[in-house]
Design brief:
The chain is of the alpha/beta class. The protein has 18 helices and 13 strands. It has 2 domains: 168 residues, Rossmann fold (3-Layer(aba) Sandwich); 182 residues, 3-Layer(aba) Sandwich (Rossmann fold).
């Protein structure tokens, strides 16, 4: 098993539990992941979730950690060869891990297929070399993989499964609901680079809103809280900062600014009007922006149209973000239209395949 970021670790933990229910106690797990996977019995080789990143410049800086994780995995396979390797998202590393596994004759099932169809600079050959089978979370992707001759199965989006089993902190929500309205949630992501890039933009946007919102921020994970606290202090911004708490924030806030990722799907699940923002370094923006030919927010990909306003930015200005957020807070028609689209997405995902069960079916087909 290998999951390279916190959201992938959550998916991996649920899949591990499902596989154990399906196969029995004889199944064992080893690999890369985080605490939730360790709780399900993962023999941890390396924890890449602490160094997870996105985009070109961030991944270049993580090359030494990727090399260490790859070496540790290969050495582990030599002494305890797995029947199948399951990789989850985090394409920048898993293309190399998958290629190494298949070179040793080990099948690789990759969960959350690469959006190669959205990036003209991306080639198919690394995907074909790295993965024996790809599990897709978006239905429309299946055609692209079929046309490319890459074995793939549409399993649906796994996030809603996890959220349905999540228990929210009722006392916390009651306390947050007492904060002055309008309440604006800032979900800055779980990666350090995401938070450092997006938080200044979100704070700049929040300052431009009228009336001034009451801010509640999810730190993504505890290690990020000192940076957020220091940024708020230096900018003179008053906000409540929570470790995690994305569900509680979304359930009690009037709107949210969200770094692109799984949190945008959480906004759909909880029915919270939202704007998506992702800020790149100038280096990454220069190389990435011309090649991104579709939406980056997952709800927009599922819907096939713009449901959440999304902004891929290079500067720290939040003017456009503020304009979009102001509309959702003040314009009841715009707000209702977005919430209606959220309801349509929820129905589509709930009525579709059972993602973890479908993923387990494919993984089990490779077990000896």
């Amino acid at each position: 098993m290998s999951a390279g970021e916190p959201s992938g670790v959550g998916i991996g933990a649920v899949l591990m539990r499902t596989l154990r229910e399906r196969v029995g106690d004889d199944v064992s797990f080893a690999g890369l992941g985080g605490p939730a996977m360790v709780e399900q019995g993962l023999d941890l080789i390396f924890d890449p979730a602490r160094t997870a990143t996105m985009w070109l410049w961030g991944n270049l800086k993580r090359i030494p950690a990727h090399k260490r994780a790859l070496r540790a995995s290969i050495e582990s396979w030599k002494t305890n060869r797995p029947d199948v390797v399951v990789t989850i998202d985090y394409q920048a590393f898993h293309l190399y891990l998958g290629t190494a596994a298949r070179a040793m004759g080990i099948p690789v099932v990759h969960m959350v297929g690469s959006q190669f169809w959205a990036r003209r600079y991306y080639t198919l050959e690394p995907i074909r070399r790295a993965y024996s089978h790809v599990l897709l979370i978006h239905e429309f992707e299946k055609k692209y993989y079929d046309d490319a001759g890459i074995p793939a199965t549409f399993i649906g989006h796994p996030l809603f499964e996890r959220l349905a089993n999540r228990t929210l902190d009722e006392p916390l929500m009651a306390r947050l609901a007492k904060r002055p309205a309008p309440r604006l949630g800032l979900l800055t992501g779980s990666r350090s680079a995401e938070i450092r890039g997006s938080l200044p933009v979100m704070l700049d946007a929040a300052r431009q809103l009228d009336p001034k919102p009451s801010l509640v921020i999810s730190s993504g994970r505890p290690e990020s809280k000192p940076f957020i606290d220091e940024t708020l202090r230096t900018q003179g911004v008053d906000a409540e900062v929570l470790d995690y708490g994305s569900g509680e924030i979304l359930k009690t806030c009037d709107a949210a600014l969200i770094t692109s990722g799984s949190a945008s799907m959480e906004a759909v699940y909880y029915g919270t009007p939202a704007v998506v923002v992702y800020r790149l370094s100038p280096f990454s923006y220069f190389f990435a922006k011309p090649h991104i030919t579709c939406a980056i927010a997952q709800p927009n990909l599922v819907a096939g149209k713009t449901v959440l306003p999304e902004f891929l930015l290079c500067s720290g200005s939040g003017a456009n973000v503020a304009h979009a957020a102001q509309k959702l807070l003040r314009d009841e028609t715009a707000r209702t239209e977005q919430l209606n689209e959220f309801a349509t997405i929820r129905r589509r995902l709930v009525d579709g395949p059972h993602p973890t069960s479908a993923a387990a079916d494919v993984v089990c087909s490779y077990l000896t």
